[in-house]
Amino acid sequence: MGFFDLFSSDDKKQRLSKIANLVAVASADGVLEENEIDLLAILSDKYGASINEVKQVLNSNGNMKFVPPETNREKAEHIYDLVAIMMADGDISPAEMKACLVITNALGFEPYKAKSLIEKSIEMFKKYTLPDTATKLLLDEINKI
């Protein structure tokens, strides 16, 4: 493995982890709805994932290693993406909310702060806040911690 392969490998692990988190939230209610699958495809493309990588995650049965985003900006973007997929079917189930809280907590946020960040993301999502604006607002909240 060459020097640049090390970075590629780390990027791939983080990309697969993000997709696995999205799948975990979307399927937490026991059903992966068509609109959740559509959004998963859009977000996977945003992360630069290939269709084979998405299939790898879907076939992993939740056995992907968690690799958290490194920067607060990446964490803010990921939280907003988690909320977007949680809301994709128009209904936030208690199981989806729990999965989102667990993942946000695993990003390094205390439970009360994780809940606050998710609630702020839901508010912004409902107000049709653009993702870049939402990320900046969430990043401001994270940086206050």
Can you put this structure into words, describing what you see?
With 145 residues, the protein is mostly helical. It has a single domain (3-143), classed as TerB-like (Orthogonal Bundle). It is 71% helix and 0% strand. The protein is built from seven helices and no strands. Helix 1 runs antiparallel to helix 2 and helix 1 (3-26) runs antiparallel to helix 5. The longest helix is centred in the N-terminal third of the chain and has 24 residues, at 3-26. The radius of gyration is 15 Å and the shape is globular. Mean pLDDT is 89; it is low at 1-7.
Please write out the topology.
Elements: H1 3-26, H2 34-46, H3 51-58, H4 72-87, H5 94-106, H6 111-126, H7 131-143
Helix pairs in contact: 1-2, 1-3, 1-4, 1-5, 2-4, 4-5, 4-6, 4-7, 5-6, 6-7
Let me know the average pLDDT.
89
Q: What is the string of SSEs from the N terminus onward?
A: HHHHHHH
Number of helical segments with 4 or more residues: 7
CATH class: Mainly Alpha
Using the 3D structure, state the CATH architecture.
Orthogonal Bundle
Shape: globular
Entry summary:
The chain is mainly α and 145 residues long. It has seven helices and no strands.
Please supply descriptive tags for the structure shown above.
145 residues, mainly alpha, disordered N terminus, TerB-like, 0% strand
